[in-house]
Structure prediction request, 319 residues.
Amino acid sequence: MGLFRRGPKRDGDDAPRDAEFAFFSVDEGARFRGQVREAFAEQGLEVTVYADVVADSSGRQFGLGNLAAVCHNDQRGPRVWPDVIRGHVGLVLRTMDAPSALDTLPADQIRAQLYPRVIGTDGLDRDTFRYARALAPGLSEVLALDLPESVMMLTDDALEPLGDVPGLRDRAMANLRGLPVEGHETIEDAGGMSFDVVVGDSFYTASRVLVLDALVRQVTGQHITADGALVALPFRHQLAFHVIRDAGVIPSLNAMAAFAASGYADTPGAITPYVYWWRAGTLTQLSDRDVEGDGLRIVVGEDFRDLLERLVAQQPGED
Prediction:
């Protein structure tokens, strides 16, 4: 007998896939949802389980997408899913049942814990987040209150007693600039491809694209050029950038497109699988799914094409 018990292995790719979460097999999806129902029952709450959400008798809904991705990405395997799910459900219910931080925290403390958060626009309720700032197709910026166990995205109604939105955003941006860099690495090869990746446990790591100029100075000691930078923010804990200086932008764009798509897939807190051109704070999408929907393609407009042509023309010729 072995010294260590091994958890059940994951089903192979040849097993029939779950219709909602393709990273699960059909059997794994059923096991996951069953464990979710059990975790809620342990908390005294009976729920109806659907493909991507559970609902209680009062109509409250709890999405399963992030939790499913957390389980899928946990390298310990399905043996730890019950504990992971139990912890997540307990946290969700504590957060929902506790008094609102907006009612218990002083206004000054709320402002000190306020951050801008970049999110994918899918699922954002425009009726309750009318103030949300559009950054690019599929990307929006909202304000969030950072709490010890959760992050509360603030609606129009929640912000109203706190002051005007521009003033609150200024404070949130100042708080964002004050965050430490938790982790940084540079990815490069001999062919001129290079980009930097900032990672961290903070839910606002990817949101630092909003203060990219300051972040680049902090991480590299250099300034962003007038030509801007490539950026990718596949999920909330990761931001990649390449400052545009020469024709190395071409291999870097291709590498970052693959990097962003891979980081976005099956990841908790997913934001966007695409690469963007950052120029003076404006984001322009450069990568997209191909017409068949099963790959990537680079899509550039006239301005970016002119930039590439200029940089290639400036590249020293070979002897």
